[in-house]
């Protein structure tokens, strides 16, 4: 889904699973967006981020030691 003319792009929090080591830092930095499975690997929300969630998502991206998280605009 692309943003309509005059609207902000729709942002999603995504992960490159090949870079993730399951450290779990992201779940501490963005607990409303990320949970971890029993091995410590992240489970991300599967929806467009709301405006208030973008700040939390950016903290998780910046704090990921393996740089596995990123925010993509649709």
What's the topology here?
Layout: E1 11-15, H1 25-29, E2 34-36, E3 42-44, H2 54-63, E4 69-73
Antiparallel strand pairs: 1-4, 2-3
Description:
The chain is of the alpha+beta class and 74 residues long. Helices cover 20% and strands 22% of the residues. The protein has 2 helices and 4 strands; from the N terminus they run βαββαβ. The strands form 2 sheets. A two-stranded antiparallel sheet has the order 1-4. Strands 2-3 form a two-stranded antiparallel ribbon. Strand 2 and strand 3 (42-44) form a beta hairpin. It is globular, with a radius of gyration of 12 Å. 16% of the residues are buried. The mean pLDDT is 92.
Salient structural properties:
single chain, 74 residues, alpha+beta, two-stranded antiparallel ribbon, two-stranded antiparallel sheet, 2 helices, 4 strands
Q: SSE order, as H and E?
A: EHEEHE
Query: Helical residue percent?
Result: 10-25%
Please, what is the average pLDDT? 92
Strand order of the largest sheet: 1-4
Q: What characteristic shape results from the CA principal axes?
A: globular
User: Kindly, what is the distance between the CA atoms of the first and last residues, rounded to a whole number of angstroms?
Assistant: 6 Å
Low-confidence stretches: none
DSSP helical segment count: 2
Total number of beta strands? 4
Calculate Rg over CA atoms: 12 Å
Largest sheet: 2 strands, antiparallel
Question: What structural class do helix, strand and pairing data support?
Answer: alpha+beta
What share of residues are in beta strands? Answer: 15-25%
Summed up, what is this model?
With 74 residues, this protein is of the alpha+beta class. Helix content is 20%, strand content 22%.
């Amino acid at each position: 889904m692309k943003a309509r003319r005059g609207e902000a792009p729709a942002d999603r929090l995504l992960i490159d699973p090949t870079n993730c080591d399951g450290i779990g830092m992201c779940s501490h930095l963005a607990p409303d967006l990320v949970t971890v499975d029993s091995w410590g690997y992240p489970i991300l929300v599967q929806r467009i981020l709301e405006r208030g969630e973008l700040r939390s998502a950016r903290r998780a991206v910046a704090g990921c030691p393996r740089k596995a998280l990123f925010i993509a605009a649709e």
